[in-house]
Design brief:
Helices cover about 25% and strands about 15% of the residues. Strands 9-8-7-6-10-1-11-12-2-13 form a 10-stranded mixed beta sheet, with helices on both faces. It has a 4-stranded antiparallel beta sheet with strand order 17-18-19-20, with helices on one face. Helix 6 crosses helix 7. The longest helix is centred in the middle third of the chain and has 25 residues.
Length: about 500
């Protein structure tokens, strides 16, 4: 099926009145809370097979909703993966395809003194492209975002205050978010009268350096601060206006550090024979003493946050009309002393963050929607992050499709994504499916395509083909034996890839 035909089908999903998802009155529209964590692998949760780490609240979310087993991030790293959520475009079309950094003076920074980070953010989203918070806001939703922005540097044309977000608290710069006791966080708050996104200095922390032994004396743990602001925002919501909260929590991203409380103490006892990591010259992370305990504790801490969000919704009487989604922005990392092999974090999948193998892009994805989604469902529908935008549009009744730009040209034919609302509502017979899923990532010079059970991974221009039905770990490259399949998938790459001066990749050569 051609790309044009695919986008027509995707757009057509929005007028499927038989689903009867949308109520006429805006106050009857469902609230949405999307919790997106950082660098959690497919196998990091107990409900996805993790044996060492306790995640009772997220497990309960899965038991009360739908757990997807073939859901994919938009990219194997953070900023471009989040961009696919915001735009509904895959990484062959979107403007943001990598973690391009901006800072005002020098590409090198002195991280070991007490000065504020000079790095201020990432490549901005295309200012002409309507993104998800703007769509929600124009449909009457109150919008809040708490955690990592990663959609534009400070002072750019794409900061939360300019892109449809009513309330923001967290990191504008995702590079700074590598540390959990930073010098400052960013805030934009209509309720506080802010006119732009500003820095909030963490005064108690400023007397201690960012690196070294005294760093542990800092007391304001950013993950806790961000989570508390998210809870306060929920507390201000009512049944009179629908709300959309995007909680982009940084846990369990390295560095491996957290408050030394009962959560960490529990895992220190569990992993008595633990590992240490001494750091490395020029590393962005501090050394870690109990790497296994720290990592496990960070996931359980995140799980506790999820439980508190659910409790707050119930306390406010909002849980029955709120869709809660939980996922991760990409696969697991091994920086900062993290040990994916120990925890089996790849869920028996090959690959890590920055790779287009399954382990780098297949992620946990759970959706709870009381009264709409049947509890305890496990679904194999293939979806990617760029399906989220069209799904939300269908759920809230948005029929004015956001325009998108591909290679600087305006396109009006919908999204790369396809709404999976029919799957959520149990209408599998009405669910349109992807002919293929697509990823590209310039930093490791990789391209990924999934077509049914075929998976093509292109590395430095060389294609490798796998049969996921019989080789989920992608161990056996069968490209030579199936050149016709390779050629079909290479054709998809040439059709879907648009050139980018900022994020270049090497395309494969088609063989006859």
């Amino acid at each position: 099926m051609s790309k044009k035909r695919t986008t027509i089908l995707a757009s057509g999903m929005f007028v499927a009145s038989a689903l009867n998802v949308i109520a006429a009155n805006k106050t009857d529209k469902p609230n949405i809370i999307f919790i997106l964590c950082d660098d959690m692998g497919y196998g990091d949760l107990a409900c996805y097979g993790q044996k060492y780490i306790q995640t009772p609240h997220i497990d309960r979310l899965a038991s009360e909703g739908m757990k997807f087993t073939q859901a994919y991030a938009g990219s194997p790293v953070s900023a471009p993966s989040r961009a696919t959520i915001m735009t509904g475009q895959h990484s062959g079309h979107g403007h943001v395809r990598g973690n391009k950094e901006y800072w005002p003076q020098s590409p090198m920074m002195n991280y070991k003194d007490n000065r504020e980070f000079s790095i201020v953010g990432q490549e901005p989203y295309d200012a002409r492209h309507v993104i998800l918070p703007e769509v929600m806001k124009r449909n009457g939703y109150a919008t809040g975002m708490f955690g990592k922005w990663a959609g534009g540097y400070e002072g750019s044309s794409s900061t939360p205050d300019k892109r449809g977000v009513d309330e923001f608290f967290g990191y504008i710069c995702q590079f700074q978010a590598h540390l959990y006791y930073p010098n400052f966080l960013n805030r934009y708050s209509q309720s506080k009268g802010d006119t732009a996104t500003i820095r909030i200095t963490l005064d108690e922390n400023i007397n201690y350096p960012m690196y070294g032994d005294d760093y542990r004396k800092r007391t304001q743990y950013s993950a806790d601060l961000i989570h508390q602001e998210a809870l306060k925002w929920i507390d201000r919501q009512s049944k009179d206006q629908p709300f959309y909260g995007f909680f982009t929590y940084t846990l369990p991203h390295a560095e491996l550090v957290q408050p030394n409380d009962s959560i960490l103490a529990f895992y220190k006892k569990q992993f008595f024979h633990d590992k240490t990591w001494g750091g490395s010259e020029g590393s962005r992370y501090n050394e870690a003493i109990h790497t296994h305990a720290e990592f496990a504790g960070m996931i359980t801490r995140l799980d506790a946050y999820v439980g508190e969000v659910m409790d707050k919704l119930k306390e406010k009487g909002l849980d029955d009309n709120t869709i809660v989604i939980f996922s991760s922005d990409n696969g697991p990392h091994e920086e900062g002393g993290a040990d994916p092999a120990f925890f089996g974090r790849d869920g028996q999948l090959r690959g890590l963050k920055r790779q287009c193998y399954e382990g780098g892009i297949r992620i946990p994805f759970i959706v709870r929607w009381p009264g709409k989604i049947k509890a305890g469902e496990v679904n194999e529908h293939q979806l990617a992050f760029y399906d989220i935008m069209p799904t939300f549009c269908e759920i809230i009744g948005e029929k004015k499709f956001p325009k998108r730009y591909v290679n600087k040209e305006l396109k009006t034919d919908g999204f790369d994504g396809i709404s999976f609302a029919p799957t959520l509502l149990g209408h599998d017979d009405k669910q349109k499916k992807h002919d293929f899923l697509y990823w590209e990532f310039h930093e490791t010079n990789q391209i990924g395509v999934r077509m049914g059970d075929w998976k093509l991974v292109v590395i430095n221009g060389k294609p490798h083909l796998y049969d996921l039905k019989n080789d989920i770990h992608e161990d056996h490259d069968i490209a030579e034996a199936h050149q016709d399949v390779v050629n079909t998938m290479v054709d998809i790459i040439y059709r879907e890839h648009t050139p980018s001066e900022l994020f270049e990749v090497t395309l494969p050569t088609k063989k006859e």
